[in-house]
Amino acid sequence: GKIDKLNIILKTDTQGSLDALQEAIKKIKIENVEVEINIIHSGVGNITETDVMLASASQAIIIGFNIRPDTNIQKIAKSEKIDIRLYKIIYDLLDEIKSALKGFLKPKIEEYVCGQAEVREIFKIPKIGTIAGSYVLNGKISKNDNIRVIRDGKLIYEGKVSSLKRFKEDIKEVNADFECGIGIEKFNDIKLKDILEFYIFREIKEK
């Protein structure tokens, strides 16, 4: 259905991207849809609890560009039933706002975070590359998942898992509170304390 106002809270990684997005969002127009897009709050930096509470009070969606909210913020947003949408490509973000204006905010495919691990040791192995000695913080991680590297709340890299090992044995998955060695395809710039987030895309079941 048509909506008459779309409230947005916008958080980005840099001032440059914030300015560019605010300009681009203001210019969005959809034929035959009379909707006011209202950026009620915007800023540089990660999504905070204040942002979530403001979204809850004003029925806004939170849009994050090139940032990743920490697990605690994700939990609060879930309990407050706040929609946090994260992007790294400006056009994807603008397309989704256009879809929202047409009344199609819910995609048929959603991203699901399976688990997170923290890098605690780094091993450089000749001909193989860097292996992240990691501790699984929550959930369950699998060799078939997609992986992203998060450093200080910022997205550093997204790609595929090249290897998952425990005590030199290749394994398919690791549960929370266990340690393992993780190799990332085409990425060796791993640092201590990096958060490795494992995720999949899954179809949303129609209710």
UniProtKB/TrEMBL annotation:
Compartment(s) where it occurs, according to its Swiss-Prot or TrEMBL record: Cytoplasm
Metal-binding as UniProt keyword: no
Leader sequence segment: none
GO cellular component term of the entry, any: cytosol
Residue span, Translation elongation factor EFTu-like domain: 129-185
Domain Translation initiation factor IF-: 2-98
SUPFAM superfamilies according to UniProt: Initiation factor IF2/eIF5b, domain 3, Translation proteins
PROSITE patterns: IF2
Database matches in Gene3D superfamilies: Translation factors (2.40.30.10), Translation initiation factor IF- 2, domain 3 (3.40.50.10050)
Main location: cytoplasm
InterPro entries hit by this protein: EFTu-like_2, TF_IF2_bacterial-like, TIF_IF2, TIF_IF2_dom3, TIF_IF2_dom3_sf, Transl_B-barrel_sf
Alphabetized GO MF terms: GTP binding; GTPase activity; translation initiation factor activity
Keywords carried by this UniProt record: GTP-binding, Initiation factor, Nucleotide-binding, Protein biosynthesis
Keyword match GTP-binding: yes
Pfam families documented for this protein: GTP_EFTU_D2 (PF03144), IF-2 (PF11987)
Family stated for the protein in its record: Belongs to the TRAFAC class translation factor GTPase superfamily. Classic translation factor GTPase family. IF-2 subfamily.
Classification via PANTHER family: TR-TYPE G DOMAIN-CONTAINING PROTEIN, TRANSLATION INITIATION FACTOR IF-2-RELATED
Protein name per Swiss-Prot or TrEMBL: Uncharacterized protein
Gene source species: marine sediment metagenome
